Amino acid sequence: MSAEAGMLAPVRDVKLRMERVGMAFERDGKSVSVLEDINLDVSDGEFICLVGPSGCGKSTMLNLMGGFLAPTQGSVTIDNQVVRGPDPRRILVFQERGVFPWLTVEGNIGFGLAKLSRAERRERIDHYVQMVRLQGFEHTFPSDLSGGMQQRLQVARALAVDPDILYLDEPFGALDSITRLLMRGELLRIWQSERRTIIFVTHDVDEAVQLADRVVVLSARPGKIQDVLTIGILHPRNISSASYLEHRDDLLKKIGLAYTA
Amino acid sequence: MNALTQPSRWEKFFWPLLAAALLLLLWHYSVIWTATQVFPSPLSVEKGLAELFRKHVLWSDIGDSLRRVAIGFGTAAALGIPLGLTLGWYPAANQVLNPLLQILRPISPIAWIPIAIVLFGIGDHAATFLVFLAAFFPIVVACVSGVSNVPTMFRRAGRNFGLSPAQILARVVFPAALPQILIGLRIALGISWLVVVAAEMIAVDSGLGYLVIDSRNSGKRYDLVVAAMLLIGLIGLALDIGFRRLEKIRSVRWGFGHES
Amino acid sequence: MKLLVRLRPFAFIAVLLAIWQVAVNRHPAQLLPGPLGVAHGIGDLLKHGLMLKYVVASLFRVTWGFLLAAVIAIPLGLTIGWYRRAGMALSPLVQVFRPISPLAWIPIAILWFGVGDLAAIFLIFVGCFFPLMLTAMSAVHNIPAVYVNVGRNFGLSAADFIYRVLYPAVVPQLIIGSRITLGIAWLVVVAAEMIAVNSGLGFLIIDARNAGNRYDLVIAGMIIIGTIGLLLDLGMRSLERVKSFRWGYSED
Fold first, then answer.
1. Closest residue by Cα to residue B182 from B260, B132, B120, B252
2. Is residue B229 part of a domain?
3. Residue A258 confidence (pLDDT)
4. Which of A194, A241, B82, B161 has its CA 20 to 30 A from that of B238?
5. How do the domains of chain A map onto residue ranges?
6. CB contact under 8 A, C88 and B239
């Protein structure tokens, strides 16, 4: 809430911009509006969380940003270029079943690295295996990994291609709560060592307050940006501190409004 | 999945009609270009169809084929479903019977013709017997599968609510297995239709299969051959579509997922 | 104890055979032989070397018919399954052709190929073509959208995508479909040989009956057919297991 200059991440150029974005789907001949009038600027290196009730369009918004969908209104630009389709410079991490079951850990991480030389590829794979702490599992298939490990694998695969932006669509939603806590810590650690823009969809308030620089609250369908909260606490965040709890309360209130709206 | 846009409704009719039209054109011109003397063109097939309809014999042929399917399939279902349910319910029984079924299953029903003829003589009953054989195994297998795939938690819930084993079978297991049983029945019906036509080509002298072989043998009427084949295809398709309707009934609709 | 349990099915079959033999002994006049007669028949066939010859002939036709169908129908089916409009166009046509028994194609097969091997192979081709195509179409439809999106996300070229995502994703289902279709091929070859060719296991059956009511050979032939069909099925199933083991997953 209060923004002391020294405590925030340095503000950089606008990386991603959504201008008057709207999204409508055809269902049974009727047009259903899922998102309306979305305006958002995301700076380079920022960690943004999208929260809101189920069905409010958070995943749709992520898909629009990733280029998997085209907006029916408005435009999404990244680095001042209109987003026209999926691109390896911005990788999406899915909630479930995102890793390829027919490839080992190594194979998955190396998936996007076909253009590199063998030595470079080896180096990158080793680096990211270490980073997500899957050493020893290089030759294991995903079916032998736990849910949390599979998600770490997905993140490693995403990072290996050195993207500018990482989109995460409720990546920890299918995991148990303890694993979820651990994964949040892992993600923050990774983000701090190799800073990229991260846009993270969740419906978990704690997750948003723990991770994000800014939290975008979407209202129920048709999704509009109801609020944008800035979490001005330095990492690592103490989840019992007063400022954390204040932010959390604030967010809960805002979301409560979103649910009952 | 990679459609650029959702295809609109009219497209559902347009594309198949276009494909059918192209196929007909291809057929028509192939006949002309190869200057074949024997293979019929689409037009002659159409005329052949009209001729068949006019002859009235066609209706009795269709009726005969359908009748054999009805009786053979019906008997197979009447015997196969209880057997399949029992085998699925008592895995021990299944273990005993399974090897025998696994050896009998790959034997083409047509290979049973000599036996069928010994038992029933040439004619209707032999063909019906073959249909029965062809439908029996898929139905039993589907029932066994359906019952064993009912999640144990359903059975436990049944016991929890104080149902007897017979009641559990009737009120829990059977409805839960029904979608898979229906799929097995539909497949068995398709197989029945295939087999009745084949059986009629060998062991009887009426029916659509017989019409196919007879049209060739008595006069090389390939236009009638193809006409009969098309009828076989269309009726088989109609049987399949009709049966799929059953899958829409409320009490089983849950088992077939939604298309979204 | 466990051994007894495993032997139960064979005991059951033995009991059935005994009943059969007794029934035959009671009615010596009728045509069908008992199990002993059939065993003699199998011995006969082995002695004359006919069995091997016929088995090879049938397998030869099945192999060729199946492979030809696979080589054409699977890529075609994958393509049609991928492009929605192609599926919309061709699916109804396939649905009309599919219920036509391959045997109904016999007049056309004989017209085009005469009586012999080629006609039989053609019939098996027809019998395998539609199921394989439908399996391929279904396999493509069942690829989880996630995999496709990941492929797009990583900027794969079309060729890359097909080789590195599409193919691994559909192979398990294709193998299952191939096993089922191979079973169909085996049924069709036997039937085709009863009508349109002069060798093979199907021919054995019809010939044994026609040339002397040798029902012992008829049933012997049926048992051989059943056994080989079962072996083909088991062979394919072990292939399924190898693949899923190697890829660490099964189609679940």
1. B252
2. yes
3. 62
4. B82
5. 12-89+165-260, 99-162
6. no
**Cβ–Cβ of C153/A143 closer than 8 Å?**
no
Question: Would you call C82 an interface residue with chain B, using a CB distance cutoff of 8 Å?
Answer: yes
Distance CA C154, CA C156 (A): 6
Out of B12, B110, B233, closest to residue C96 by CB: B233
Chain C residues with CB under 8 Å of a chain A CB are 144, 146-147, 149-150, 152-155, 160, 164-165, 168-169, 247-249
Mean pLDDT value across residues B105-133: 89
Distances (CA, A) of A213 to A42, A165, A179, B22, C165: 11, 15, 22, 60, 36
A12-89+165-260 CATH fold: Rossmann fold (3.40.50)
Q: What is the mean pLDDT of residues C209-236?
A: 88
B108 → closest Cβ in C105, C187, C208: C187
pLDDT tens profile A91-128: 999 888 788 888 899 999 999 888 889 999 999 999 99
Per-residue pLDDT, averaged over C13-35, amounts to 84
Q: Which residues pair with A41 in a beta bridge?
A: A17
The pLDDT tens digits for B32-75 are 888 777 788 888 888 888 888 887 778 888 999 999 999 999 99
pLDDT tens digit at each of 261 positions of chain A: 444 433 344 556 888 999 999 998 887 778 888 899 999 999 999 999 999 887 778 889 999 999 888 999 999 999 989 998 888 889 999 888 788 888 899 999 999 888 889 999 999 999 999 988 899 999 998 888 998 899 999 999 999 998 999 999 999 888 888 888 888 988 998 888 888 899 999 988 889 999 999 999 998 888 888 889 999 888 888 888 999 999 999 998 888 876 665
C149, C150, C244, C247, best to mutate vs chain A, most A CBs in 10 Å: C150
Q: Kindly determine whether residue C101 and residue B11, on different chains, have CB atoms separated by under 8 Å.
A: no
Those of residues 82-141 in B touching chain C at CB distance below 8 A are: 92, 95-100, 102-115, 117-118
Cis amide linkage into residue C35, ω under 30° from 0? no
Any idea what the CATH number is for the domain that residue B74 is in? 1.10.3720.10
Structural domain harbouring B198: 42-254
Chain C residues in contact with B111 by the CB 8 A cut-off are: 190-191, 194, 202, 205, 221-222, 225
Which domains, ranges and CATH numbers included, belong to chain C? 36-246 (1.10.3720.10)
Cβ within 8 Å of residue B116, ≥6 positions away: B126, B129, B130, B203
Distance from CA of B171 to the nearest CA of C (A): 28
In this structure, what token pair is assigned to residue B189? 């019906």
C140-154 burial code (b ≥16 CB/10 A, e <16): beebeebbbbbbbbb
Q: Is the CB of residue A94 less than 8 Å away from at least one CB of chain C? A: yes
User: In A56-95, which residue ranges form alpha helices assigned H by DSSP?
Assistant: 58-66
Give the pLDDT of residue A259: 65
Residue B32 included in any domain:
no
Note whether residue B225 is domain-resident.
Answer: yes
The reply to whether residue B97 touches residue C191, judged by beta carbons under 8 angstroms, is no
For chains A and C, CB pairs below 8 A equal 57
In a domain, B18, yes or no: no
Question: How many folded domains does chain B comprise?
Answer: 1
The answer to whether C89 contacts B19, with C-beta atoms less than 8 Å apart, is yes
User: What is d(CA A112, CA A135) in angstroms, rounded to the nearest whole number?
Assistant: 20
Q: Is A110 on the interface with C (CB under 8 A)?
A: no
Of A73, A113, A98, A223, the residue nearest A152 (C-alpha): A98
3-state helix, strand, coil in chain B (%, to 5): 80, 0, 20
pLDDT band, residue B246 (cuts 50/70/90): confident
Percent of chain B residues past pLDDT 70, beyond the cut:
94
Residues A258 and A218 sit within 8 Å (Cβ to Cβ) = yes
